[in-house]
Structure prediction request, 462 residues.
Amino acid sequence: MTKTCIICGEPTGSREHLFPAALGGRRTNKGIYCADHNNEYSGLAGIISAQLALFNALIGVVGDHASETKPIAMNDLASGREVELSNSRIRFKDPKVISQEAEGNTIVMKMAFSSRKEAKEWVLEQKAKGFDVQVTGQGQRIQYHVGTTHARITLGGNEEGLRAIGYIAQTFLAHFFPDVARLPELQGIRDYTLKNVGSGFVWWNFETPDDLPVNKFPFGHRVIVGLNKEDGTAYARLSLFSTLNFSVLFGTVPVKASQSVITDIDPLAKSPPNDVFSWNEGTAKGAVSKPENLSASLAEAISSGNAQARINDLMQRIVEFERQTAARAILRKIAGTASLTEVDRDKLFSNIVSSEAQRVFRLMRYIADEYKSKATKPEERLICDLLDRVVALDPRSANGLTEEASRSLVIACEALKKQMSEDFKAGILDQDRMEMLIGGGPGAYIVGTAILQPIIMTFPER
Ligand SMILES: [Zn+2]
Prediction:
């Protein structure tokens, strides 16, 4: 049987991603849309992907057919320069001119690039413009430390975002209930997703039913499509990153028996088969009913702070996940180093900690902020001022820090390295301990003690 497009009834053949490729969807179905309608919907898939780009970049989602995480543009407050974030790492978008001097007919420029590749490309670009460029030296690799970066995100709250959600849900309905998706009764949702006619099909939902199982994947997306015999409706629920939840009511259809299909999607899986987990339920799991006011749940969540709390919780989980991944990578580097001489092992730990210097600097800032929030006595305030200097940024310098902050960072790195070495010798440097050292309380304590010691020593003895 030839499959027909759920919109126009013409033969299909266009390979459609069930879940948007940019959000980590890897599965396709050729029997849902014709080429034209697949094309017409690509804008909507793009909108939802753009709205969620920050989370994609933080978690390190690699879109289907892509080779790396798509970076997102942010602004570094200290330098005012545009930075790019991907995989929780930040790099400058453009090369920076550090100095520029004329020597006769030649201009000598000192520049900073984010990578060798960027430097090469820049040289080629200048040559293409007709400049005779000669590279006189490679310079050194310096890690630049950023303070606070800002990105503005709009989440699926606007009508286009909601339509994009409706379109994803509609595609899943067509996949699991192909006959239902083609019913004339559901013309309304098809008109809504395709032509933006009508409304009231999709809304934010912050109240998730208790009987739904936990998502199979960390940061997993979930799509539930179902038929509810009780009120004769076809419905869907969408959860993005297990955090942003929406309800969809496709319409009223003939239902013989309640049933539903739940699909959990792992945005971090690079390929099938373990990228999705799908199962049938013999009931209308997570059935939805239309609230009187479609924006009530969102409005309530915003005014109560629940919406912000959800986002904060997601961000917190991303930070923890990133730290776990980093700790695992470090442990891999030090596995089997017991046979190294103490000097060599020391060198290895030094390299590891300095390549994680941004993390150490984050611990320093954390200590400074913590101390500040608790300081009340005058001498404590004095220490706050000193701590401020210890973590001060200087966007004009090569590494983004003042000289004093750079010195403190070296001290902090050294202290952390020493602790890692000792823990390794004591046989207690496991995953958990490593996570704590590079981003937890024990790490902050070691770093804090190290940077506070020189400060406290500057006080005269009483
Ligand atoms: Zn069509």
Remarks:
- The first helix runs from residue 35 to 51.
- Residues 5, 7-8, 10, 33-34, 36-37 surround zinc ion (CB under 6 Å).
- Residues 222 and 264 are 5 Å apart (CA to CA).
